[in-house]
Amino acid sequence: FLLQTSILDELTPALCRAVTGQEDAARMLETAFRRNLFIVQLDAVHGAYRYHGLFADFLLNELRRRFPEQWNELQRRAAEAQRHEPERAMRHLLQAGLDESAARLIEEAGDHLLRQGQLTTLAGWLDALPADLRETRPSLLFLQGVSAFRRQEMDEARQLLERAQSGFEATDYRLGILVGYLAEIASYQLDGPRTQELIERALACSPPVEERVRLIMTRIRSDYM
To answer: What is the CA radius of gyration of the chain?
Structure first.
């Protein structure tokens, strides 16, 4: 039980049950705490604990040494149980080398990270994936491109967004958003005719209202180039 749950940052009965399959996880945690097995209580009401850092490292090393065949499955279970906490779930998926699952999670959580301005977190997740996997998923290229745009790395943003563009279906609402970013890049590079062309293409894709407003503002700025 200690070895299997050592992959968790926080130990709760529900998480430990999900990872180990043991229904008596709450009792096991309470017993470990009472016996002072290098475990710290975080929340007495909800039964949350964590292992001391050095003890956790010892357990992880023992888990890898004694039961290497369990590693990936335990990480997968931990990720699935913490799907509502993308950062924790992602750590488990990357630990297990479950790149396809990690890519799907990035696609699900990427827009939220962008809205929250968590560009460093998003970039770290994307960089952890194999480059050839990113190239096959236009949604990942789109997120990379928007991240580069937010960092004011316009040449890189344009290349990434153009590669993503060819993979999006015409019915994908993000196509209008993507072309809108390309229009802003063209505006930033003082290419008035291309800016106007891209704005019209983006508006034709019926993007969300806030994106339409941004496009119209870009068109107004472009008129004064």
So the answer is: 23
**Whole-angstrom Cα distance, residue 86 to residue 89?**
5
Instruction: Please give the C-alpha separations between residue 125 and each of 27, 103, 120, 121, 152, in angstroms, as whole numbers.
Output: 36, 9, 9, 6, 20
Rounded to an integer, what distance in angstroms lies between the CA atom of residue 190 and that of residue 118?
29
- How many angstroms separate the CA atoms of 101 and 90, rounded? 9
DSSP 70: G
Q: What is the DSSP letter of 8?
A: -
Return the ∠ at Cα 89 (arms to 85 and 95), rounded to 5°.
Answer: 155
Could you give the angle at the alpha carbon of 49 between the alpha carbons of 46 and 50, nearest 5°? 155
225 residues of the chain, pLDDT tens digit each = 999 999 999 999 999 999 999 999 999 999 999 998 899 998 877 779 999 999 999 999 999 999 999 999 999 999 999 999 999 999 999 999 999 999 999 999 998 999 898 999 999 999 999 999 999 999 999 999 999 999 999 999 999 999 999 888 766 778 889 999 999 999 988 888 999 999 999 998 888 888 889 888 888 887 776
Rounded to whole angstroms, how far apart are CA atoms 175 and 93?
A: 29
Residue with tokens 């040494």: 65
Report the 10 Å Cβ neighbour count for 176.
20
Q: Indicate the length of the chain as a whole number.
A: 225
Distance CA 53, CA 99 (A): 27
Q: Is 225 exposed, middle or buried (0-12, 13-18, 19+ CB in 10 A)?
A: exposed
The CA distance from 72 to 94, in Å, is 10
